[in-house]
Amino acid sequence: MIDHDKRGYLIRLIGIDTAIIVFCGFNDGVHPLPSIWALTVIDNIPDHEICALYRASKMIQRGMSRYDLTDFEWRAIEPILPNKPRGVPRVDDRRVLNGIFWVLRSGAPWRDVPERYGPYTTCYNRFRRWMKAGIWDKLMDAVTSQRNDGIRMIDGTSIGVHHLAANLRADHQDRCLGRSRGGLTTKIHAVTDGKGLPIKIVITAGQAHDLTAASELLSDLPRGAMLLADKAYDADWLRAKLRTNGSWANIPPKSNRKRPLVFSPWLYKKRNLIERFFSKLKCYRRIATRYDKLGITFLAMAKLACVRLTLRHNESTA
To answer: How far apart are CA 172 and CA 191, in angstroms?
Structure first.
């Protein structure tokens, strides 16, 4: 049973002979981010049961704000956002961004944005306006441009398209979807570093071969880097391009190759990190299923997800 009042709410956790009462409250009137005020133990509860109930209360605490930007993430993002020295001040950027990330993570329609993030139209208009201004591209470039560990991994993954996102006319220039064995799909192509963190992503129609985006993704490959990729990237022109740049392609040769190539299975095992990256990327429901009609909108959402994954990794290793 939960009793709400103006300053907070009282959570009663009853599942054993006695109970733990956790008092929670709001840290301000806008963001309902609960903080534990006290933990009162009634009677004599075993330590393991106290720890279990305490962890449950912490999960409730994180559940209301787990999509929001942390202070570390906000400090990294804030300097990159555009300034507005004149005119009417903008609505709080952090609150609006939290609303955008809530849509990205939950996959919900814009109209379902919680009231604590302000009007949903503000979140949507800010997302569209900054997408057209290239702010999301600039943000991803700033977050991912500082890494050069000499290893690059490239791969692609197909994303199913929701039927409401597939009703544009076939000749629309930004439709960016095609039919493959999985139905209507869009393919995300990505390059990551040696830690599996994204560096650059592009999208194509779902039926496109992985090599279609290789030239664009590898246009700024560092000299002397090693490229890890699967058999889909075993092409003579790609290997020649890497040799020209002084790089090395550790790609397993196809079975129909007549001349043997140098390949290290031990180094190839590290390529699982880019597969893990795609797995983490699809935890964002707006990416796991494409709900956006325009390809540019879906790509902007994917770049925001990449930014969030990178910042969270940086925060955990800081």
So the answer is: 27
Q: At what angle do helices 272-281 and 295-317 cross, to 10 degrees?
A: 110
User: Can you state the percent helix, strand and coil of the chain, rounding each to 5?
Assistant: 45, 20, 35
Q: Give residue 120's pLDDT.
A: 95
Domains of the chain: 2-63 (no CATH), 71-133 (no CATH), 139-312 (3.30.420.10)
Per-residue exposure over 240-258, b if at least 16 CB sit within 10 Å of its own CB, e if not: ebbeeeebbbbbbeeeeee
Q: Is the pTM of this model over 0.90?
A: no
Q: Output the CA–CA distances (angstroms, integers) from residue 99 to 80, 110, 165, in the order listed.
A: 18, 9, 21
The model's pLDDT over 119-147, given as tens digits with 9 standing for 90+, comes to 999 999 999 999 999 999 999 999 987 67
User: HSE (CB half, 13 Å, CA atoms) of 111?
Assistant: 0
